[in-house]
From TrEMBL:
Mitochondrion keyword on record: no
Pfam families: RimK (PF08443)
GO molecular function: ATP binding; ligase activity, forming carbon-nitrogen bonds; metal ion binding
Superkingdom of origin organism: Bacteria
Span of the signal peptide: none
Keyword terms, alphabetized: ATP-binding, Metal-binding, Nucleotide-binding
Protein name: ATP-grasp domain-containing protein
Higher taxonomy: Bacteria, Bacillati, Bacillota, Clostridia, Lachnospirales
GO cellular component: cytoplasm
Span of domain ATP-grasp: 101-292
The keyword Signal is assigned to this record: no
InterPro entries, per the entry: ATP-grasp, ATP-grasp_RimK-type, ATP_grasp_subdomain_1, Rp_bS6_RimK/Lys_biosynth_LsyX
Length: 301
């Protein structure tokens, strides 16, 4: 048997408990399958790939589990020919909520109507300049509407506006950041489904409910329950993961007016600690099995 070894790369700065837990669980589950891994932060060593000067630190590794979202490092790593889980392109598309929306927009995937925010370089620019655009947002999306930072996570960059004053207030807040406007799916207020897809198949799912916020994120006080996924939710989740070529992801699905699934966002680096404790499903183990299957069937450098 030709033994393989992996490198798990994590963000250099993050001290989030869930982010620390993820690599350790994956390392342990891969070890059970006979695959050794090292866990390292994306710091000094990955800087050496710049200008292709040295990739020698990668020579011991057959694949990389990339738990960061630093797009420059993932692009450089993939240029060395190593297999990344997830791929650079998949991470890039999912990290930006507007790019995810565009990638899925002509594929028959139901999503809330969405309008991109305009790029603004100047914090003193007046929103009066784009009043026609604001009127269009009001006509197409109505109130309440959602304003989102394209690179937000854990619910912190998602806002709701009930009227023009609130819309302008939120627009001012996100003016110089990438952002989007979205129709509020009222039937899903304070609840959604989180679905984990691994290797193209739904692995497990849970429902997230908040009694105090329209956002169901656990980090904002939401709670999670086991959720028996209806077939339409399963089908759309697997289709999304396939279109975006994701080895692993966590998809947020809203509940449409007739209970149908509406894709809210796709997380390429979804934390799985909460999912494992709520469902009892071994997410890290399933991901480890997928990785093993790929690296032993593909020729890796
Ligand atoms: N268009 C929408 N309609 C209704 N609720 C929404 C909408 N968009 C987001 N939400 C709620 O806000 C939460 C956070 O939004 P999401 O796009 O998943 O951003 P984040 O990356 O911060 O989790 C969702 O889980 C959902 O509960
Ligand atoms: Mg989310």
């Amino acid at each position: 048997m030709n033994y393989k070894k992996g490198l798990i790369l994590v963000n250099a700065f993050s001290k989030l408990k869930s982010a620390m837990h993820q690599p350790v669980r994956l390392k342990d589950e891969l070890k059970v399958l006979g695959i050794e891994c090292d866990i390292k932060p994306c710091s000094i060593e990955t800087a050496m790939i710049i200008s292709g000067s040295s990739t020698s630190f990668l020579k011991d590794y057959d694949f990389i589990i990339y738990l960061d979202k630093d797009k420059y490092t993932s692009a450089l790593l993939e240029k060395t020919g190593k297999r990344l889980f997830n791929s650079h392109e998949a991470i890039l598309t999912c990290d930006d909520k507007m790019m995810t929306h565009i990638a899925l927009s002509d594929k028959g995937i139901k999503m809330p109507d969405t309008i991109p925010g305009l790029l603004c370089y100047n914090k003193d620019a007046s929103l009066q300049e784009v009043m026609k655009r604001i009127e269009m947002i009001e006509q197409r999306l109505g109130y309440p509407c959602i304003i989102k930072e394209c690179y937000g996570s854990l619910g912190s960059g998602v806002f709701r506006a009930e009227n023009r004053d609130e819309l302008l207030l939120n627009m001012e807040k996100v003016k110089c950041k990438e952002h989007l406007f979205q129709k509020m799916i009222n039937s899903s207020e304070g609840k959604d489904a989180r679905v984990i897809v691994i290797g193209g198949k739904v692995a497990c799912s849970m429902k997230r409910i908040s009694d105090t916020d329209f956002r169901s994120n656990i980090e904002l006080g939401g709670r999670a329950e086991v959720f028996d996924l209806p077939p339409s939710f399963k089908e759309i989740s697997e289709k999304v993961a396939d279109i975006l070529k994701l080895d692993y992801c966590g998809i947020d699905l809203l509940f449409g007016e007739s209970g149908e699934p509406v894709v809210c966002e796709v997380n390429s680096n979804a934390f799985f600690g909460g999912m494992e404790s709520v469902t009892g499903f071994n997410v890290a183990g399933a991901y480890a099995r997928h990785i093993k299957e790929i690296i032993y069937e593909t020729k890796v450098c």
